[in-house]
């Protein structure tokens, strides 16, 4: 039995908790948060143990794995604490605030002999996994170009000032680009070698970039073009059968008001954002993969392949949602292998995202 403790009871944990009872051999046993009211609500809803700190939870003999959903700048501290107690670690993207922290986390988990799994990765989504398998299977030849776009309302959601600070591993680019970077790198299946990017900061209410475009070059000469926009006027789901990132049906109504950063009391006083889970495949933007002998993209039920014979739809297995991380860790331990995506993958992802910011800042290509 894999016994999970959740570190952090904010908005991110609400996406994870509903899946905890859906995986055989995995059991939620407790949660840690510095906020007394959050602990009280968890104890009321789940009837499980709560802890005022991650260290206290790690000290519990009933916990053998910690799923870290705390703010990004605390990922390293909490992962090191977890590894020091010889417990396995799942960390939400981005892995850490900087590459040095990634190295420390990887080294600590390796020394302790525990697994370090990157969570909230779109590699787990069934359509992304299927496109990666098709790309590596050779049916369409080599991948030559990937274009991935994601327009959403990230800047219009309630944010604390620390959630907008790139120095703390936060801000729009470091919070959203990891998804598209995971998608294109997984499908491409080879090492990225350079990044050229531009960013924009056009909303005076929030001190963070709100849009970004990046060209990622790979070893073979293939490249990926990714584009992000979080201003909220347009959602990419309109180009994807009105399907959102949880497989839910999305409309195109009036956007939420633009807003400035909130103080903690103000943010936590707001009602939780509704996160409806749908039955369709999740669409994290729109991704088009061009290959030597064809192309592919997501369909509502799976993957569209475009070849000389026309268009063919391939269905894919049901999407695992946030059970994927739990299944991966459980199976990796049973099979005595490393997890995927692991700490090294998370570090490489963060290196690309940090290079995007550096490239835009210095107006040059950044070699990885």
How does this structure look, described?
It is a single chain. It is built from 10 helices and 15 strands. The chain has helices at residues 13-16, 36-46, 54-58, 75-84, 99-112, 126-137, 171-188, 264-269, 323-335, 343-362, and strands spanning 2-7, 26-32, 49-51, 65-68, 88-92, 116-119, 143-151, 192-200, 211-218, 223-229, 286-291, 294-298, 302-307, 310-315, 366-367. It has a 9-stranded mixed sheet. The protein has a 6-stranded parallel sheet with strand order 3-2-1-4-5-6, with helices on both faces. α5 (99-112) runs antiparallel to α10. The N and C termini lie far apart (40 Å).
Summarize the entry for a quick read.
With 368 residues, the chain is α/β, with parallel strands linked by helices. The protein contains ten helices and 15 strands. The strands form two sheets. Strands 14-13-12-11-7-10-9-8-15 form a nine-stranded mixed β-sheet.
Beta-strand residue percentage: 15-25%
The CATH topology annotation of the largest domain reads as: Dihydrodipicolinate Reductase, domain 2
| Integer tally of domains | 2
Report the sheet with the most strands, covering strand number, pairing sense and barrel closure: 9 strands, mixed
CATH superfamily of the largest domain: Dihydrodipicolinate Reductase, domain 2
Structural class computed from helices and strand pairing: alpha/beta
As a percent range, the share of helical residues equals: 25-40%
Count every helix, treating DSSP H or I runs of 4 or more residues as helices.
Answer: 10
Number of strands: 15
List segments where confidence is low: pLDDT < 50 over at least 5 consecutive residues: none
Instruction: Identify the strand order in the major beta sheet.
Output: 14-13-12-11-7-10-9-8-15
């Amino acid at each position: 039995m894999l016994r999970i403790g959740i570190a952090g009871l904010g908005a991110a944990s609400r996406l994870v908790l509903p899946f905890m009872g859906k995986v055989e051999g995995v059991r939620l046993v407790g949660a840690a948060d510095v906020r007394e009211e959050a602990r009280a609500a968890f104890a009321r809803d789940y009837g499980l143990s709560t802890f005022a700190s991650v260290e206290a939870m790690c000290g519990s003999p009933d916990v053998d794995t910690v799923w870290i959903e705390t703010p990004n700048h605390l990922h390293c501290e909490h992962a090191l604490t977890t590894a020091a107690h010889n417990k396995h670690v799942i960390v939400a993207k981005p892995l850490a605030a900087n590459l040095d922290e990634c190295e420390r986390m990887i080294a600590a988990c390796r020394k302790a002999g525990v697994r370090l799994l990157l969570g909230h990765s779109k590699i787990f989504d069934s359509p992304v996994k299927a496109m990666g398998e098709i790309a590596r299977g050779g049916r369409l030849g080599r991948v030559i170009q990937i274009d991935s776009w994601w327009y959403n309302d990230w800047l219009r959601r309630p944010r604390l000032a620390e959630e907008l600070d790139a120095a703390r591993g936060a801000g729009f680019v470091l919070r959203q680009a990891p998804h598209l970077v995971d998608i294109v790198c997984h499908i491409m299946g080879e090492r990225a070698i350079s990044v050229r990017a531009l960013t924009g900061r056009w909303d005076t209410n929030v001190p963070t970039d709100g849009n970004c475009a990046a060209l990622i070059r790979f070893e073979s000469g293939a490249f990926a073009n990714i584009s992000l926009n979080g201003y909220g006027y347009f959602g990419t789901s309109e180009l994807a059968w009105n399907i959102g990132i949880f497989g839910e049906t999305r409309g195109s109504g009036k956007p939420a008001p633009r807003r400035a950063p909130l103080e903690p009391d103000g943010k936590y006083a707001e009602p939780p954002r509704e996160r409806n889970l749908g039955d369709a495949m999740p669409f994290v933007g729109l991704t088009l993969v061009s290959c030597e002998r064809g192309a592919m993209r997501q369909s509502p039920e799976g993957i569209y392949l475009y070849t000389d014979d026309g268009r063919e739809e391939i269905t894919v297995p049901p999407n695992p949602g946030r059970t994927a991380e739990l299944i991966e860790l459980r199976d990796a331990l049973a099979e005595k292998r490393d997890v995927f995506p692991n700490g090294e993958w998370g570090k490489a992802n963060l290196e690309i995202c940090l290079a995007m910011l550096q490239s835009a800042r210095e107006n040059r290509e950044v070699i990885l």
